[in-house]
Amino acid sequence: MTANRLKQAALTLFADSGYEGVSLSEIAKSVGIKTPSIYAHFDSKEQLFIELLEDAIREEREKLLLLLQGMEDHPPIERLYAVFLFYTDLDQITKGQSFLKRTMLVPPRHLESRLSQYFTTYEEEVTVHVSELLRGSTNGGTLGEERAERLLALFYALIDGLLVEHKLYDSALYRKRQEQLWSWLREALRPGTA
């Protein structure tokens, strides 16, 4: 019970202030315990942070799979659009997803290489689904390996760029950019385009 309370408190604090901006004493205080009591549940702040990251990736992966399962009978382009929105409609994301996005943008410096492994593994899983949807969304056109890789890179660049823009721009401008970028990706999927 206390471990879960600690994780929930830490998740909120890390999502708001990042790894460096949160101390174990703040986490302990927020659940009403003394700092040394944390060590009964977690060896370190780093271990707590990594567990939260694993939880957040698992949560987001499960949500994505549920989305895809619920749309199995839809055309690939509609499913691709749903995945695009899944990663770019950032106003209604969970605290875990918010924590994950912040960590992706600003990873703790001393954990960058370790976190990169988590993000790479997660992206590889997502790539399987996105690649399939890209291939199915070409309106009967063929999608060679080089073009598929370029479109996949474009997809990731768009969702990553929108993640940054979400923090910088007001909602109206963000929505406009989101729609424009989706239109651009859809155009790129037409046969005969790069």
UniProtKB/TrEMBL annotation:
- The regions listed as transmembrane in this protein's record are none
InterPro entries, from UniProt? Homeodomain-like_sf, HTH-type_TetR-like_transc_reg, HTH_TetR, Tet_transcr_reg_TetR-rel_C_sf
Presence of the UniProt keyword Protein biosynthesis in the record: no
In this chain the HTH tetR-type domain maps to 1-60
Highest rank taxon of the organism: Bacteria
Read off the PROSITE patterns from this record.
HTH_TETR_2
Keyword field: DNA-binding, Transcription, Transcription regulation
Q: Which residues bind DNA?
A: 23-42
Q: Does the keyword Oxidoreductase apply?
A: no
* Protein name per UniProt: TetR/AcrR family transcriptional regulator
Kindly list the organism's lineage: Bacteria, Bacillati, Bacillota, Bacilli, Bacillales
